[in-house]
UniProtKB/TrEMBL annotation:
Any one Pfam family match given in the protein's UniProt record, by short name: NTP_transf_3
GO molecular-function terms, A-Z: nucleotidyltransferase activity
Domain MobA-like NTP transferase: 4-168
Domain of life: Bacteria
UniProt xrefs under InterPro entries: MobA-like_NTP_Trfase, Nucleotide-diphossugar_trans
Name of this protein: Nucleotidyltransferase family protein
Amino acid sequence: MISAIILAAGEASRMGKLKQLLPWEDSTILGTVIKNIQESRLEGQIRVVLGAESDRIKRELSDYNCQFLTNPDYTRGMFSSVMTGIQNLPETTTGLLFMLADQPLVTTGIYNKLINYFKEEEPLLLVPSYKKRRGHPLIISAELIPEIHKLGEDGDPEGGLRSLLDKYEDDIEYYNVDKEGVIIDLDYYEDYQKYYSDHHS
């Protein structure tokens, strides 16, 4: 069973406002990410790791059937949210799908393709690739969960989960997609405005 961990704890300092709750489609950026995963073939839990303004986000997204976890150390960086997200996983977990909160352009269809491939091929690491650029979501085999815990024992590793990808570079399987949404995150308000108008026109 694959569970999803959506990393949504950041303060969005580069955006200048709480980007998780900016409007997108008939919801918000984070709400759309959750909805696209909910509508996929994912069987496990959807865990949303919050930090900055967590109470406000929980209130606004209370209709979504997912598990909200709060990372008290979110200011230390994204890996602390990874560690929050992997606590007390069900024993039936076979894989973890890691997703960023600011990538609403990743469609349910892309999630389904990755989930199906992971179930059939059982790679250690599965990463979508657009024109040879790594994107999200990435799916990590449950076999590597002890490795993530080990990384977390030394505080926050340089590069976070990327350091795991570097260590197991030869074991990564890349799934080529023809949609650039897997590499687009909305870090700056200009990015948001551009992709919002492209997507909603």
